[in-house]
Specification:
This protein has two domains: 3-140 and 315-397, 3-Layer(bba) Sandwich (FAD/NAD(P)-binding domain), CATH 3.50.50.60; 145-206 and 260-311, 3-Layer(bba) Sandwich (FAD/NAD(P)-binding domain). Strand 15 and strand 16 form a beta hairpin. The strands form six sheets. Strands 1, 2, 5, 6, 7, 8 and 21 form a seven-stranded mixed β-sheet that branches. Strands 9-18-10-11-14 form a five-stranded parallel β-sheet, with helices on one face. The chain has helices at 13-24, 37-42, 67-70, 83-97, 179-190, 229-236, 238-242, 246-255, 327-332, 361-364, 374-386, and strands spanning 3-9, 29-32, 48-49, 81-82, 101-102, 106-112, 115-120, 125-133, 155-157, 171-175, 194-199, 222-223, 226-227, 274-277, 280-287, 290-297, 300-306, 308-311, 335-336, 339-340, 353-355. It has eleven helices and 21 strands. By secondary structure, it is α/β, with parallel strands linked by helices.
Length: 401
């Protein structure tokens, strides 16, 4: 069986970017997954990205493939990027820069004497020198333990819903205080549901209008994570972030761009959304087919009854939630808690096994939680893989736009 240079598992922003950079460097690459599938199927209709248009570009190996190139009329600072425009951009990028995506999934990734075997859902086994795991955030959806006593029909993660209109005329508890929670609550209200937002914070935070934002210094730069000198470092120099002690990196990832809503959402968050701020969920149970959520608030305990509970509580990287990794391979990986320990090329402790996206945040900092990190990750890992495996450069196939 012929061995190829690389298999990229996942066809979201990080997978597409990695495959595009590998292809441009002449590495024979197979891209496994449906382009932008998670964004198409697990983000709610009506959603907008929180990132600015210039920071919503995938990592391109050539000019002319950035988001503003695709949608120049929607690329001004402060323009919210609609979900459907971003997913269409991702597919446009895939057609022009990446190898053809294979609409299947990787069932098993395991090492062999020549590199790795990747077994696909089609039954095919692919032998490859390198594997890039770019599975996105989907496998890492986090539902707090306090909600786990609820049966599946009564509780879900915010990423489980494409059409929030299914909750029309129903009572829904949304747990969280970040953009996902606030936007989910607003979209529920706009679809005719009765949402209650439960958040531990005593005050909701909202980002400022971009042209009004600024740090103490007038010249604080605007960058992929916002505005300011410190966040500029995390945004534009993730290689420097990796050199910091792990505890420092962990704190930076946890606190940079904490829970807050986009400025353009604030006016839509109104009295249609009931709020319980300063309330911590302590437990939840089913009662007569409905969910009962118990909280502890500033005035004591309280209970909320609803038809459904949506946990808009983010994503927590965990290698054990990537079932395609063979158990022995997964167990042997060096970790930062649940995340793989990565070297400066995004390579894990298993030679020629690379991780990109949220799984890399523990090593390279908070920018790996965002689309803006795709170019740094893709270019760096592609350079490393290409140094080991080279082939003809297929740049003549790329569409220059």
């Amino acid at each position: 069986m012929t061995r190829i240079g690389a298999v990229v598992v996942g066809a979201g922003p990080y997978g597409l970017s990695a495959a595009a950079h590998l292809r441009e460097r002449g590495v024979e690459t197979r891209l496994i997954g449906t382009p932008m599938q998670f964004w198409d199927e697990h983000m709610p209709v009506g959603m907008c990205l929180k990132s600015e248009p210039f920071a919503s570009s995938l990592g391109a190996p050539l000019p002319g493939l950035a988001f503003p190139d695709y949608a120049p009329d929607a690329a001004a600072i402060g323009d919210p990027v609609p979900l459907e425009v971003f997913t269409a951009y991702g597919r446009w990028f895939a057609e022009r820069a990446a190898p053809p995506a294979e609409v299947t999934r990787a069932e098993r990734i395991e090492p062999d004497h020549t590199g790795y075997r990747v077994v696909l859902a089609t039954g095919e086994t692919v032998r490859t020198a390198s594997v890039v795991v770019a599975v996105g955030v989907g496998p890492f959806a986090h539902i707090p333990g306090e909600l786990m006593d609820l049966p599946a029909p009564l509780v879900s993660h915010s990423s489980d819903h494409r059409d929030l209109g299914a909750f029309r005329d129903r009572d829904v508890v949304v747990v969280g205080a970040g953009q996902s929670a606030l936007e989910t609550a607003v979209l529920l209200a706009e679809q005719g549901a009765r949402p209650t937002l439960v958040a531990r914070t005593s005050r909701l935070m909202w980002n400022t209008v971009p042209h009004e934002a600024g740090g103490r210094l007038p010249s604080a730069p605007l960058h992929g994570l916002g505005r300011g000198w410190r966040t500029w470092l995390w945004s534009e120099r993730p290689a420097t972030t990796r050199l910091l002690p792990y505890r420092t990196r962990r704190r930076i990832v946890a606190t940079t761009l904490g829970p807050a809503g986009a400025w353009w959402l604030r006016d839509r968050f109104d009295e249609r959304v009931r709020t319980l701020l300063g309330h911590r969920v302590t437990r939840a149970r089913e009662d007569a087919g409905r969910a009962v959520v118990f909280t502890q608030g500033p005035d004591g305990p309280e209970r909320v009854t609803a038809d459904h509970v949506i946990a808009a509580t983010g994503f927590v990287p965990d290698l054990d939630r990537i079932p395609a990794l063979a158990p022995a391979l997964r167990a042997g990986l060096a970790r930062w808690n649940g995340s793989p320990r990565l070297d400066r090329t995004f390579q894990s402790s298993a030679p020629d096994l690379y991780f990109a996206g949220l799984a890399a945040a523990a090593s390279f900092g908070p920018v790996m939680r965002f689309v803006h990190g795709t170019d740094f990750a893709a270019s760096r890992l592609a350079r490393a893989i290409a140094s080991r495996t080279r082939g003809p450069r297929p740049t003549d196939h790329l569409t220059h736009v």
